[in-house]
Model the fold of this input.
Amino acid sequence: MTVISSTKNLEALSFTLVAEFAADVKRVWQIWEDPRQLERWWGPPTWPATFEQLDFEPGGKAAYYMTGPDGEKARGWWRITSIQAPTRLEFDDGFADENGAPVEAMGTTHATVTLEEIGDRTRMTVLSTFESEEQMNQMVEMGMEEGMKEAAGQIDAILAEHSHA
Done:
């Protein structure tokens, strides 16, 4: 397992996942910018993701859904706020209704992804910040921490397959 740590910080309303991979930064960046690679790990194994849209540029949007074991679909959206390839990505992330419209009541999470070279490995830090303690607790209750760990656990296999530099 590549996940080094996951830390909840209630004061900062944040959740941080740190993982390391036996691949260079440019290769790890591809699992974010390529929707076909992204959808193979963004959802945990029991809730695989399908990206219907990924405009990988500042101001770009993504639309995706995760399909549960019983066929239920949970939809989500991203709004990319910053890209500094290949080391930093920031986006707002939220839930969507069946038409893809944001579900305001669920709030928005802001994600900051940082990739850094550690020797011949890459350390990926995903910092998620929440709007309120209620929202954070709701996400934790929905299994966000476990889900993100399981999702990140799928990355090694993707990286091992091919690196098209």
